[in-house]
Design brief:
The chain is mostly helical. The protein has one domain: Arc Repressor Mutant, subunit A. 51% of the residues lie in helices and 8% in strands. A two-stranded antiparallel sheet has the order 1-2. Strand 1 and strand 2 form a beta hairpin. Helix 1 packs across helix 3 and helix 2 crosses helix 3. It is globular, with a radius of gyration of 12 Å. The N terminus is likely disordered.
Length: 77
């Protein structure tokens, strides 16, 4: 791990749950869940809150989007 980069275990709460759910989805299906599916899987009612956590994970470098949609994201760690 490069100094200054958070490890996958560094995320707690909702962000950690989002990251774990994406990891499981990629392993099971080969791609991440859609924002709506991710919200339903985590019990989050607001899609905006799901996007908020996804954007923060993207800014921190934990995931990268390959396109416009979040289900094209891939984990960097």
């Amino acid at each position: 791990m490069v100094s200054g980069e958070p490890s996958a275990g560094a995320f707690h709460g909702a962000r950690g749950a989002v990251l774990s759910q994406i990891r499981r989805s990629v392993l099971d299906r080969g791609e991440a869940l859609s924002v709506r599916e991710l919200g339903a899987a985590l019990g989050l009612r607001s899609l905006a809150s799901v996007v908020y956590h996804l954007k923060n994970l993207e800014r921190s470098g934990a995931l990268v989007r390959d396109g416009r949609n979040w289900n094209t994201c891939r984990l960097t760690r």
